[in-house]
Target: 3-isopropylmalate dehydratase small subunit
Amino acid sequence: MVVKGKVHKYGDNVDTDVIIPARYLNTSSREELAQHCMEDIDKSFIENVKPGDIIVADKNFGCGSSREHAPIAIQASGISCVIASTFARIFYRNSINIGLPILECEAAAKAVRNGDEVQVDFATGKIQDLTTGASFQAEPFPPFIQNIIDQGGLLNSLKNKKKP
Model:
C-alpha cells in the first residue's frame, strides 16, 4: 500500500487529550470525532486536512490516556498515516487495532516540514518527501501486522480469518 498527502507537523508528546479532548468521549460517531480531531492543539486542523494527508510528529505521539477514540478521530478525519520518531505503546497498538497505518522514523520526523508532500510505501517502509526530494527508511511492519492494517483493523482481520 502506498499513500501520498500533505504533512501536518507536530512536536513531542502529542497527548491523546489534545488529539480528541475528553469532552467528546461520549460519542462513538466517527464523523463527530473527526470534527473535533486535534482542535485543542491546532484549531485549523479540521478545516485544512484533506483525505490522504499525513501527520508527522516527534517523540511519544499519542501519550496520555489509552482512549481508542484518538486514532479513530485521526483516521476519520482523513489522515492516511502517522509518522513519528516514537509512539506511546498503547496508541501504537490501538492504531493497528483500528487499521490506522503508523511508522516510526526519527529521521523523517525531524526533516519533514509542515505542508510538505510526502509519499509512504508501507511494504518497503520507504518515506519520500516529494517537496524536498529527501528519502527516509522506516522499518516496515511484519506481514501479519500489515495484513491487520490492510483489512481495516484487528476485528475485520479476525472476521475474515478462514476457519480450519
